[in-house]
Amino acid sequence: MEAATNFLNSIQVNDCRLANRMVQIAKGDDNMSGIIEEMTGYRSVKQGFAKSYQQSREKIEANNNNPTEDLKDALANCPAEVTDIFRTGSLLSHAASRVGAEDWASVMRARVGDVYMRWDDGDRVPLFTAIPQCPAQDTESAQDFLTGKVQTRSLNFPPTGADCSQDGAGRGALVLARERMQSIATKIRTRAALSAEERQFVANVRTLPVYRMLEWGVRQGVVDSVIADTDELVALTLAYQMLNDLTRTIDYTVTNADRGATVAGSADGNNKNVCQTRILSKGIEQLRDLRDEVLRQRAQMRQSYMAALNQANLSANYAGLLRTRDRDARDAAGAAARNQ
């Protein structure tokens, strides 16, 4: 009986220990309470987020898919790389101003198009509209710059065909090259110093030794002939450089804007608001389309330039051959006359 009693008492003690442990777990010790709290909080946040997202979605759908909240504070703490460009107006003009190319903005817009952004006080989200390039231009070569048919596009919304017009007085690179070469030849003849613009002109024409050729023409008294034979080749080089400068500027402008918006963080690291450029994704995508068009034009322009350069060289060589044959014929005729 004593052994049986001790056994029953031991069972009672073990039951008490088990009951105490179950109560402790139910109340939670330090480890268990932390886990339970974390899991409970995660579940609450998850349910709350899902509920909030569903409510926001229902509100937007009920509002004909228009935003129901003003999201201007999404860019409240963005750096200048973002806020200087992504604001109401022409994104290309804003980006060009940041790199010192604002004078090229209207020609850039005519060449590759633009992106117009509107985010006025009454707009809850930014609205982006693509502005097309001007149709009446040759985007495959430097011909417009050569003949003075470069287009410019004013900024109007909505855009129309009336926004496009010819830039300047239509004085292309060919006219400018002739005038500049005649001016340099005159200064060579009168032994006057070249201006800074004339020296830059000589340096820019890398396909021909312009100064030496004009100097030879002055000595031989055939300046007009030299200019007539080389003005197109010189102008072609200048036109290509002008267009290459433009496309390089556009590429740099758009790339700089894209990079600034993509890697933007907060202007103030202590500010709880983070620069949320995702709201600009549509505008950034359209800017990237402009850059792709610029790169396409640059590659095509390079091919057209090389083809035109070869043709101009061929024409110049042929003209030189004709002059040589004409001179030889004259010399032969003179020699024959003297021998008679």
From TrEMBL:
InterPro entries: T4SS_TraH. It comes from the Bacteria. It holds the Pfam family TraH. This is Conjugal transfer protein TraH.
